[in-house]
Design goal:
single chain; 330 residues; alpha/beta; D-Maltodextrin-Binding Protein, domain 2; eight-stranded mixed sheet; two-stranded parallel ribbon; 12 helices; 10 strands; globular
Length: 330
């Protein structure tokens, strides 16, 4: 019996020692975070608004704050594939996601069965910027105003179509909402990312899309695509001659394509705070503010205590709007 008690004591002592060592190791890993490159997963293909901003953020964190951030595009199923990947990743701060209104706020209202829960699976670590969305049409269309576009589509049923960057993306949902408000029916063509949709629009094979101003601005200024309206409440300084959609009198639609960095929700609080500190420093820098404003965006500096409430408000807002339109993707 004495020998058994001695063995049990040794076993308990070993277990305690291992637990203490594990805790010390975990604490050390948190205290020296980040000690290796961080992956910033972008749940869309290269070339769209997500990708443009994500690469800017990764570059600035790497060069200005010496935090090595590498971008990894994981497109698929709209934004669902990449988003699920990050939700299921190890919550250690080394796998982050560039999320936005599409995968965080729109998808929960659009899909009854998502492989992730936006509210439970993610914690926001830094809001970056918001962009108005542009009502874009092919340059080959003989229209220069939203009214002319509406008349053209109504007079030619079945002739013109609507391009998206993928099922469930912001381009898709916002396009469906504005078409419904305009009373138009157009065939929908889904692409695997914004870039191929842009190229087919330039070629005149597809005719209308909704796009983030940062991704659309170059095409508009070069005359390869036309802007008929912006989704902000005021005209964009980058497109001063383009009216707001509300200003046209044909739509009651206002939306900002906001973007933020998210971590898996079980990420240690100390790591979350370190990430918030780094991103907060970035979004407050004059260089970052000038860069975002230069491409038509509005920098966001949401303090830590307001980040989760902002996310919750957006979830509620878009759930209400999408349900009122009857849009459902599964």
């Amino acid at each position: 019996m004495l020998a058994f008690k001695k063995i049990a004591f040794v076993a308990r002592s070993a277990a305690v020692a291992l637990a203490v060592a594990g805790a010390a190791n975990a604490s050390a890993q948190v205290s020296d975070f980040p000690s290796r490159p961080i992956r910033l997963v972008i749940p869309t293909a290269a070339g769209g608004g997500f990708d443009i901003l994500g690469r800017q953020v990764a570059q600035r964190l790497t060069e200005d704050q010496k935090i090595n951030v590498v971008v990894e595009n994981r497109p698929g199923a709209g934004t669902i594939t990449g988003t699920e990947h990050v939700a299921r990743s190890t919550p250690d701060g080394y796998t982050l996601m560039l999320g936005g209104v599409s995968n965080i706020a729109l998808n929960p209202a659009l899909f009854r069965k998502l492989p992730y829960d936006a509210r439970k699976d993610f914690v926001p670590v830094g809001f970056l910027a918001t962009y108005p969305t542009v009502f874009l049409v092919a340059a080959s269309l003989p229209v220069n105003t939203l009214r002319e576009f509406v008349d053209l589509v109504r007079d030619n049923p079945g002739k013109y179509n609507f391009a998206t960057a993928g099922v469930g993306t912001a381009q898709h949902i916002w396009g469906e909402i504005v078409l419904k408000q305009l009373g138009l029916k157009m065939e929908t063509v889904h692409y695997k990312g914004a870039a191929p949709a842009h190229q087919d629009m330039i070629a005149g094979r597809v005719h209308f899309t909704m796009e983030n101003i940062s991704a659309a601005r170059g095409f508009i200024q070069s005359g390869r695509l036309k802007a008929l309206g912006v989704s902000s409440t005021q005209r964009s300084a980058q497109l001063p001659d383009t009216p707001t959609l509300i200003e046209t009198g044909l739509l009651d639609f206002e939306a900002g394509s906001w973007m933020a960095v998210f971590a898996p929700s079980a990420t240690p609080p100390q790591v979350v705070e370190r990430l918030r500190e780094a991103i907060g420093t970035l979004v407050r820098s004059p260089e970052y503010i000038a860069r975002i404003q230069g491409i038509g965006g509005v920098p966001m500096n949401v303090v830590a205590t307001d980040q989760q409430p902002f996310m919750d408000r957006e979830l509620q807002r878009w759930d209400k709007l999408i349900r009122s339109t009857g849009i459902q993707l599964d």
